[in-house]
Amino acid sequence: MVKRGKKLVGENNNNLERKDANYKKDIMFFPPFFFFCQIRTRPTIEIIFIYSSFHFPPPPHPLPDPFHLLFSLFPPIRRRSTPMDRRIVPPSSDAHVSLPMESRSMSGEIHVILGPMFSGKTTALLRRIQMEMTNGRSVAMIKSDKDHRYGLDSVVTHDGVKMPCFAASELLSFRDKLGAEAYNKLDVIGIDEAQFFEDLYDFCCNTVDCDGKTVVVAGLDGDYLRKRFGSVLDVVPLADSVMKLTARCEICSRRASFTLRKTNETQTELIGGADVYMPVCRQHYVDGEMVGIPEPAAGHIGSGVTDGGPPALELRFEGCRSCSSGGEEDTPRRDGRPDPAVSPLAGANGARYKSMSPALLPITRGRALRYPLGLAPPLSSNPSSSLHERLIKKTDEPSMQSQNQSQGQNLVASENESTLSESVPNSAIDVTNSRVRLPTEAASGELQPLKCSVQNTRMFQSDPSEPISSSILEKSAEDGYNWRKYGQKHVKGSEYPRSYYKFTHPTCEMKKQMERSHDGQITGIIYKGHHDHPKSQSSRHLAAGTMLSCHEEEKTDKLSSLMSVEDESTNAPDHTHHQIDPNSITESPETGGGQSNDCDEVTVDGNLESKRKCLLLFRD
Ligand SMILES: Nc1ncnc2c1ncn2[C@@H]1O[C@H](COP(=O)(O)OP(=O)(O)O)[C@@H](O)[C@H]1O
Ligand SMILES: Cc1cn([C@H]2C[C@H](O)[C@@H](COP(=O)(O)O)O2)c(=O)[nH]c1=O
């Protein structure tokens, strides 16, 4: 009898491998009649795995490591329930697991476990499979052979809990590989890393509908871009139950529904653990978009494998409420691990995020480009930025800073968002556009006085003393587009702080950087990227969120059409437009009218009032 299940929280992969070796050693030393495997999952749940192994038939050929399958092919020996058994807690949302075997339908079932990385999908899968075994059912576990993080012979959780499995590249051949006889004996099949199986849907149909087996599917519903991953979502309509799990945000410890990739790689499939990914809440997923991504180690890009681990991302969510001390005091980690909110950038599982000032974040520099202030760059024929562009763009943005640190902030009424009144019941809203969303914090009424310097967008709140979210919706009506402010920093050489904006259209990648003097005058603007939607979209924005006059819009159109390509920076990946209104360029006091090589796109104000002031070239 072997007792195992040491807690592996925080141990790195090497340790896990070591444990794996011990595990095999244990098996070798105890050619078992019974394997008694105690799994301890946080916080206090303990699961007993009993592997009955004295019925070993000849190993099924040619599946790899058939020895392990045999643990699960044969039902465990029935035994009296022990106090330990009574501590087994089946997933609450799936009552059938706790039903006695006899009371269940013998027809097939599909249960789907979804969630971001580190959300406990594998843990839940193992629990459920174990429960099925405890109920006397024959089980097999399959995982994608693409996931070789902890070896191919086991399904392993991030805590190091493991179970023998088959590693396969596809599912439909499983029956043949296993052999009809062994397959027919199976009652339950667990599938881990289901996002990697292209034939998941067909396999589930066959196995469940035709063969009457129960299939438990665990996988990522979305990839690092929050796009559907593989065919996991396709089996939802086939499912009897679907459970979406959440992890803990590595930044703020709140509920994490998304997986953030920490490296520059853009391929969808990229095997890795905490070295490459981190679970994050919605806010920090969005914030992660603007955080600098370090260059991967040489030879790393495109490898598709990150076993060695790329350099840890250095992140700083400066001024972010949810990261500030005390911000999450009400949500301590339940798992007893050090709370990232206390040490906000100390990731779990060895991932470390060192505090780093925004100015030190890796920045890719573009060449100077000028637009008349008040004009957005023209629409692109290119419908959208490539993923690569998106990621590269990440390197060019600062960390988010709090409202407290920002100046001249306004609000934007944003289309395509849920209504503010829905999420902020305490807030009295008076906006031209009724469809406004505030960030998560707003839902808890955490608002503070806002400078609403934009005449046509008005928001009021019930409690002016409360702090506002660090992610500010801001209206910068000067150019007639709706922008969402997401950060601000002092740039070396600039007199005034520079604010960073994203265009509020849901897919548009357009960004803007703007500097304002303390009296609110705009002293410089940089536009980055291009609009990836028809112009009418922004007009709709205008109609909904602002009252930019027709005159202004016409002017924008007219001047946009006057713009022409200016410099060779067109090759820069994130600068798809390099057009300029020659009439609007004025000399830079710093460059004597020439272009600065180390400045970004600089727009000079088309607005007469501020035109003369907008000579600033942003230098870092
Ligand atoms: N940020 C995090 N939030 C929650 N759990 C985490 C986090 N980082 C590491 N873990 C660990 O990962 C375990 C879940 O592992 P696992 O079941 O393999 O998840 P999944 O299969 O969803 O990636 C948790 O029990 C926890 O100990
Ligand atoms: C988000 C994301 C993940 N992956 C890979 C990384 C891991 O190897 C698995 C997920 O493992 P877990 O058991 O859920 O922790 O998927 C990927 O290839 N692409 C992605 O976008």
Give an account of the 3D structure.
The chain is elongated. By secondary structure, it is an alpha/beta fold. The strands form 8 sheets. A 6-stranded parallel β-sheet has the order 7-4-8-9-3-10, sandwiched between helices. A 5-stranded antiparallel β-sheet has the order 16-17-18-19-20. A two-stranded antiparallel ribbon has the order 1-2. 19% of the residues lie in helices and 17% in strands. The ligand Cc1cn([C@H]2C[C@H](O)[C@@H](COP(=O)(O)O)O2)c(=O)[nH]c1=O is lined by residues 117, 121-122, 147, 149, 193, 220, 223-224, 259, 268-272, 277. Residues 9, 42, 115, 117-123, 157-159, 247-248, 250, 279, 335, 348-349 line the site of adenosine-5'-diphosphate (ADP).
Question: Could you name the key traits of this structure?
Answer:
disordered C terminus; metal ion binding; elongated; binds adenosine-5'-diphosphate; binds the ligand Cc1cn([C@H]2C[C@H](O)[C@@H](COP(=O)(O)O)O2)c(=O)[nH]c1=O; disordered N terminus; alpha/beta; sequence-specific DNA binding; 620 residues; transcription regulation; DNA synthesis
Secondary structure: elements and pairs:
Elements: H1 13-29, E1 34-41, E2 45-52, H2 66-73, H3 83-86, E3 109-114, H4 121-134, E4 139-144, E5 154-156, E6 162-164, E7 166-168, H5 174-178, H6 180-185, E8 188-192, H7 200-210, E9 214-219, E10 241-244, E11 247-248, E12 255-256, E13 258-261, E14 277-280, H8 282-288, E15 372-373, H9 387-394, H10 420-423, H11 440-443, E16 474-476, E17 481-490, E18 497-503, E19 511-516, E20 522-528, H12 535-545, H13 550-562, E21 564-565, E22 579-580, E23 604-605, H14 608-611
Parallel strand pairs: 3-9, 3-10, 4-7, 4-8, 8-9, 15-23
Antiparallel strand pairs: 1-2, 5-6, 11-12, 13-14, 16-17, 17-18, 18-19, 19-20, 21-22
The structure holds adenosine-5'-diphosphate (ADP) and ligand LXEULUCI.
